[in-house]
Amino acid sequence: MLTFPNHYRAPLASFAASLDNKGPENVITFVVERTKDTLTLIAGCEARLHLLTITLDEHCSLKTGKFSLNASMFKLCLAALDKPHSGEPISFHVRYHKGRLPVLTAQPSSDLWRDIHATPACDSHLGLLARVRSAGYEPLSKCWIESALHHAHSHPKLSLFRLNQQDEKLEIVAENTLHSYDLPYHTNPRIDLTLDTDALEGLKALCHQNRSSRIHVYADSECAYFSDEITTVCFGLNFDESELEAKPIHYQVETKFSVNVNALFNELKSHSQVDTIKLENQTYLYVSNSGIRVCGATEEERCFKCFETKVPPSDEALLYSLTSTEFKQAIGQFKTLNTKEMYLQVLITPEGSRMLGLYKHTLSEFPYSTVAIELFPEGLEDIEADIEFHQSITPTQADLFC
Fold first, then answer.
1. Apex CA 155: angle with CA 207 and CA 252, to 5°?
2. How far apart are CA 50 and CA 342, in angstroms?
3. In the prediction, which pLDDT does 53 show?
4. How much is the pTM?
5. Its domain of life (predicted)?
């Protein structure tokens, strides 16, 4: 009997989903090592390889050896056997018939059987397994990876993702333009890592799938391997020369200011408690020498909060609008840095569009993240009238002693 315990159900489902009947290797290779009590499943090819390492129980009847099975037949059996609501593990009957290669039998019901006769192990799979096992992996914190990958969300046309450890920055190429970001934390990996879109998506998926706190990473100029010690996914990397040599974008700074991170996040949370403001999904930033005001508003309801800034903004008062959910998500991500103050700059691209850059400190060369922002001059007169009215309100006696 070969039994896959229930905690392998999700990795096994991911493995089955990766099987490509039209791929160059339409087989799955089994590598059984009874001295280690492990079974390694191998699927795919050099361009996209998927490995799954299973711990075998003492009752497993597989013998030490290597063999392959038809991938589409194995996938059919898994689909028939996978009954998550029953609580039963996925199991195959194993017998060795007329030789050293086994026959695996699935019995999804009392009147249904699926037999798969093993064939000699796929040589290319064995060669790739040896290469994967000999790679020099670096363990990376999954939390760090997820923070770094957060930048990819703001670049839907991303084609290259690069960790430049020498210059301590993240680099993203989108539409042949280089965007640079400050590394997420004070302690960052000491490796260089360049990924294309497919490899980046594979890394995201592995982070989402596993419960481990670390992902083991290896990458060179041709391939990238990611492993959580159960699942290992490997990608051949493909880059255009134009992507590798993409030029950085040069911004003009329109204004700059700072705010208290926690106070800003809490104010944005309070806006979302008003159903109409939440539905509007717009946050307004009023930037002036007298202070920074954050506003969530509709025609009937308005929430304001004034923030002191430690960085003098430009002399001209400016009003901007942002998408509330994007802004709140960026602030929430920034909060993980555990810094009290956040420094912001409104950046203008050569094409005239604007980005709000969030910086860890005033000396940061690159933003930690960016959010799309728009100038909103048509609302400036109304918001300044509201500010003037608010300032005319006499504080209550209780307010004076707060």
1. 135
2. 42
3. 96
4. 0.78
5. Bacteria
